Predict the structure of Hemerythrin-like domain-containing protein.
Amino acid sequence: MPTAHHPDVPQIRLPGQAAAVPGPLDMTNMYLAHFGFRRDLGRLLTAVCQVRLDDRRRIRALAEHLAWVLLVLHHHHTAEDKTVWPRLRERAPEAIETIDALEAEHQEADRWIRESESAFAAFDRAPTEEGRTRLATALRSLADTLGAHLAHEETEGIPLMMAHITPEEDAQGHKDIQKEYGLTGMIKLVAWITFDLPPEVEEHLRRSAPKELALLGKLVKGRYRRRMAYLWG
Ligand SMILES: [Fe+2]
């Protein structure tokens, strides 16, 4: 087992999180991202059901926010598809059914990602009650499908990662994802990923996050909070 000699590290717990399995990999980024997906897909659904059809500016802002959440989801899933599942297939053949299922769940989520994008584009172009219903169905289905996948990953996928992926490989994976975002993307990611966290998780980040990321978070927090206040109404 490649990780057998590494000690366990403290893990965070966020609302909606199905488990916080102990082990040597620091899952903070993973849990923060999962929390962000759950939080914002729920809020987008509520906002879409409530927004006035003549409030084109807010509809456009909501569509842009969904595009952002889906971009983060895309990077998150691509990293797992490219590096995590292939490694686990090789190193944990006894868990092949779980790995197959987790990978298939990404495909299932893709279907609702595409429908959410297409329904939001139509609603943004010409907002109608029929369009709202189509979009709400797509967002609800995406939240349900993705929610089930995230819980499955937290309960069965993360134990496999803890046992078969090394902290060095995991750290390299985080660096590779950061490169995908570039500087502007990273600023937005830090604001998004640290928004509306429980105080104990904020405290954990204050103690453990790299100093430059913590500083960046402080700088962008106020502006991001105002943007979210407008978005969620
Ligand atoms: Fe996943």
Residues 28-232 form a domain with the Four Helix Bundle (Hemerythrin (Met), subunit A) fold (CATH 1.20.120). The longest helix spans residues 56-91. The radius of gyration is 18 Å.
